[in-house]
Amino acid sequence: MNIYSQISANKTKTWLIIFLFIIFITTIMFVYGKASGYGLSFAGIGMIISGLISFASYYYSDKIILAMSGAKQIAKKDNPHFFRIVENLCIGAGIPMPKIYIINDTATNAFATGRDPKHSIVCVTTGILEKLNRAELEGVIAHELSHIQNFDIRIMSIVVILVGLVALLADFFMRSLWYGGGRRDRESSNAQSIFLFIGIILAVLSPIIATLIQLAVSRKREFLADASGALLTRYPEGLASALEKIAKDKEPLEAANNATAHLYISNPFKSKMSGHWFTDLFNTHPPIQERIKILRSM
Fold this sequence. Notes:
By secondary structure, the chain is α+β, with helices and mostly antiparallel strands. The protein has helices spanning about 5-35, 40-70, 80-95, 125-130, 135-150, 150-180, 190-235, 235-250, 275-280, 290-295, and strands at about 70-75, 100-105, 110-115, 120-125. The chain has two domains: about 5-70 and about 160-215; about 70-150 and about 215-295, Zincin-like. It contains ten helices and four strands; from the N terminus they run ααβαβββααααααα. A four-stranded mixed β-sheet has the order 1-2-4-3, with helices on both faces. Helix 1 (about 5-35) packs across helix 2 (about 40-70) and helix 8 (about 235-250) packs antiparallel against helix 10 (about 290-295). The protein starts with a helix and ends with a helix.
């Protein structure tokens, strides 16, 4: 699959994800409503809420993510050296200059967000600017610009918001069982008990399933961005060396959370349990040594 077919596929997948999300949330709200004794009214509310959230995630997910990350926008005069690197790579990639944000943290990491190349953002930590040399920094930024060019940022940013809402609804339903228990209709108590059982299963499984989908999407796109970034710089060793330094840095990124972790170039939590099959299932990124090996084989 070439880059143009990948971009087209990402645009299509964006709308497909939003459509399936609305159906998924409506179904969940219907089950939760029946389990709580409120019937179809919850399904209607779920469709309205999911539609509004989908709209908001499309247009405002980048602002929400930046607020969650504590990132601050900088101007060219604040770091002209870094701006020139980004500008030169944007010219090579044929995309507009993104807005530049910085997270004041000594951990080494970076991510890109936005809904398309015209509304894109590259965010880096102060640590990555201090610890990487020019070639390594170019490799990292080329990787992030590839996410922008491939429209990965649209899918990945929207998924952050949608997965978060699924988890929020599941938590709300479980709390409602402890505090109130819903309305009970004696004539339909058996049916309500069945929906209650299904609702509890959904409340437990839906966030896990949503997270697994989120992580699977993220891992696949990291390999593509690595390859596209190496093609942009014509120097795979730059990104490979950067990933080696990032892997050796064991400092976790304090601004990261479970919702945004998959956006970063490397797992911001620096889990010490990687390598175990169960842990790797929930890892936000493919094994960094595998990425380095692939880059050095190019």
